[in-house]
Amino acid sequence: MPNTIVVSDIDFDNFLTYSDIFSTLSSSSKEEMNAIIIYDSENNSLYFLTEESTSYAHMRVNATIKFEKKEESTQVILGTGVSSDLLFYTLSNYSSEERKEITFTITFGEQGGFLIQRGRDKVYLPCKYLSNSKLDVNFKTLIKDELPEAPTIFQLSLLGDQKNDFLKGLIQSSKFISKDEKKNNAYAIYQDKIIVNDKRHIFIYRFDNLASFIPEETPISLHKTSAKIFMTMASKNLNFDAIMFDNTRVYLYSGDFTAVINNSIANINPPPAKSLLALIPSVQVTNVVAGTLVSMANFFMGFYRGSSEYKPITFEVQKEGIKLLLKDSGISGSASCNVEKLMECDLFEGALEANNSQVSILNDSMISFAKELASTDQIQFFMQRADKEGKKSRAVYLHHPKKSIYLATLD
């Protein structure tokens, strides 16, 4: 006879708090039944679990569970595969008060079933049978996991008061992380800063204080999936900790929730300190207020083609300031019309002579940078297109004491 449990008084508010994180970790799974529900009769506990080949997450679901064991002395482990998407969708259609009336009736085995019921509402979700060997691996490896006995290279809780600054750095750096899933897909974390970079730009976020436990020379790589989960948990004001023993895995803990996330696919290639210094143009053109730069650059955004992947903009240094131009130059992302707008500003000595030709960069990268600052913040604007000796920089450099960005020139 199949085994059945009836689950009531479920703490859905706590369970659904982590639904976004479960969905993130199972998003690349090709399995429709991408989650597992496991029942342990010894502790009368119910667990919800999602897994991929190298990452998994699980949590104990707080609830009242009724189950009649056939043998009192025997521990019974039961499990079934379900669709996390269908489960979360069903639950999201009820209010917090309505969910208090919901019960689960779960029948395990080859003829299993999963009934979600509230009053006369009944939703029968499809289930997937789990063999005893598969269930045994799931329970022993995932539910009873333990931390490695090794020194840590990173632990979020060790940041103390600096934790919020670190999380803010991840959030702001996420605007500039590469869209490539294989190359530059991670954050380079140093004692004093975070760097993300790709062919479009190099973004640097500086910490208020040194994170002295991070290795001084070699950065820690944090894959963008782990960082996304950090940011999600921070946005929900969850108390959580993250631990890394090496660059292969991230261990995440928050109450009854646990995740072990694959970090071995993280790829970083931050420029060395000397290369960063060499990239800074030797000429500062002007200081510009962040709000002014955002307003000026935003004006051009409506002129790009809707399908444009890149949105270039051109600078031309003039006596009155910096002219911003959008030209139909054949570069992907340019519009069919020509647009010019002058940003009036005071130039530093030598700025006009060192920039006797135009330079193009990506407008959206520049706007994203300026928007992260207070509208009254001053940005130091460095550019050296070409002087009398023909020297020119490969980037436009925007600097603020808290963050900086190198914008690659498009020629």
Question: What's this model, at a glance?
Answer:
By secondary structure, this protein is of the alpha+beta class. It has helices at residues 12-17, 19-26, 84-92, 96-99, 132-143, 163-173, 224-235, 273-279, 290-298, 363-371, and strands at residues 3-8, 35-40, 45-51, 56-61, 64-66, 77-82, 103-108, 113-118, 121-125, 128-129, 154-155, 186-189, 193-197, 201-206, 220-223, 241-244, 249-254, 257-262, 284-289, 312-318, 321-326, 339-344, 359-362, 378-382, 395-399, 403-408.
Account of the protein in words:
It is a single chain. The protein is built from 10 helices and 26 strands. It is α+β, with helices and mostly antiparallel strands. The chain folds into 3 domains: 3-143, Roll (DNA Polymerase III, Chain A, domain 2); 154-262, DNA Polymerase III, Chain A, domain 2 (Roll); 273-408, DNA Polymerase III, Chain A, domain 2 (Roll), CATH 3.10.150. β2 (35-40) and β3 (45-51) form a beta hairpin.
Give the strand tally: 26
Structural class: alpha+beta
Which shape, going by the Cα principal axes? elongated
Helix content: 10-25%
Residue ranges: pLDDT <50 for 5 or more in a row? none
Mind telling me the CATH class of the largest domain? Alpha Beta
| N- and C-termini, Cα separation | 72 Å
CATH architecture of the largest domain: Roll
Please, how many domains?
Answer: 3
Strand content: 25-35%
Main sheet specs: 9 strands, antiparallel
Mean pLDDT: 89
Computed Rg: 27 Å
CATH fold name of the largest domain:
DNA Polymerase III, Chain A, domain 2
Question: DSSP helix count?
Answer: 10
Task: Give the strand order of the largest sheet, numbering strands 1, 2, ... along the chain.
Answer: 10-6-2-3-4-18-17-16-11
CATH homologous group name of the largest domain: DNA Polymerase III, subunit A, domain 2
